[in-house]
From TrEMBL:
The keyword Cell division applies. SUPFAM superfamilies: P-loop containing nucleoside triphosphate hydrolases. Residues 132-275 form the AAA+ ATPase domain. One of its GO terms (molecular function) is ATP binding. This is Cell division protein ZapE. The keyword NAD does not apply. The lineage of its organism: Bacteria, Pseudomonadati, Spirochaetota, Spirochaetia, Leptospirales. One of its GO terms (biological process) is DNA replication. It comes from Leptospira semungkisensis.
Length: 284
């Protein structure tokens, strides 16, 4: 898949019909990979003979005429490709949603279309809105496509702007890791502040399954502190949940509710099981 409309990167040949100048592509239908992989385009790869076999930075070749190491023709394209891969890996986007973008989604369902439009707005207007961009509170039943949309926003922000993003399941990746940091035998022991700082500092954060379980007072106060810290730092947060925003009114004295009201746009994904009708893509 050509990434020309999804990234400003232009390290390929400007006349290349395959990548249209980007320098790399998203190769889909890859064995053992639901997401596909990024590959160097042939307009670059074909002229790279020397450093190709190693495929590792710094992508330099020895130039006889100048008697020194010079960047290979593939250098810049590979650096950019590596950066997109690195940011995607760092964001911990689940494999099935990796590299999924907003441009090829079925938006026939009205509530999904509305959510999709808001997602599109965040992505396309990031440079204008930046810190003032409103986050999203996407809620709906299993298979409504909320996680897919949330991850697609991250994928596009990485491709378009090279932003640092993070995907986290609220229980598994946040609450449980903080609990682990209290355990002497855990490798996370004593790391509570470091974990919290990672969650606060990242530019765009997806919190998946927010409020999926009946939370304890301790958990709710952790959630509030996280939301509040991101509010103070003016960071964009995208939440998915199976409960409405109003359901937070009677939790944590309504503090989570009022913060989220300020920080996010609430959208109810009222779709029939999106996953069933889109089972090839495995949507959740
Ligand atoms: Zn090309
Ligand atoms: Zn090369």
């Amino acid at each position: 898949m050509n990434l020309k409309n999804l990234t400003p990167i232009r390290e390929g040949s400007p006349t290349c019909k395959i990548c249209e100048g980007v320098g790399f592509l998203l190769e889909e239908n890859v064995k053992n990979s639901s997401s596909g992989v990024l590959v160097l385009c042939s307009c670059i790869g074909d002229s790279c003979r020397t450093c190709e076999s190693k495929g590792r930075a710094p992508f330099m070749v020895y130039d006889d005429s100048q008697n020194r190491m010079m960047p290979c023709v593939c250098h810049n394209a590979r650096i950019e490709l590596d950066r997109v891969e690195f940011l995607t890996r760092k964001a911990a986007i689940p494999p099935r949603y990796k590299y999924r973008t907003l441009d090829r989604m079925d938006t026939t369902e009205l509530s999904f279309l509305i959510a999709h439009d808001w997602a599109d707005e965040i992505v396309k207007k990031w440079n204008e809105l930046g810190k003032s961009a409103q986050g999203l509170y996407l809620w709906g039943g299993t298979g409504s496509g909320k996680t897919l949309l949330a991850c697609a926003i991250l994928n596009e922000l990485i491709l378009r702007y090279g932003l640092e993003c993070k995907y986290a399941k609220i229980n598994r990746d946040f609450l449980s890791t903080i609990r682990d940091s209290y355990q002497k035998e855990s490798e996370l022991h004593g790391m509570e502040q470091t974990i919290k700082k990672q969650f606060t500092d990242v530019e765009v954060l997806v919190l998946d399954d927010f409020g999926a379980n009946k939370e304890s007072d301790w958990a709710n106060s952790q959630l509030y502190d996280l939301i509040d810290a991101r509010y103070e730092e003016e960071k964009v947060t995208i939440l998915t949940s199976n409960i409405s925003l109003a359901d937070w009114k009677d939790k944590a004295e309504g503090r989570i509710f009022s913060r989220l009201m300020e920080m996010t746009k609430e959208i109810h994904l009222d779709c029939p099981d999106y996953r069933l009708s889109h089972s090839v893509h495995g949507v959740e």
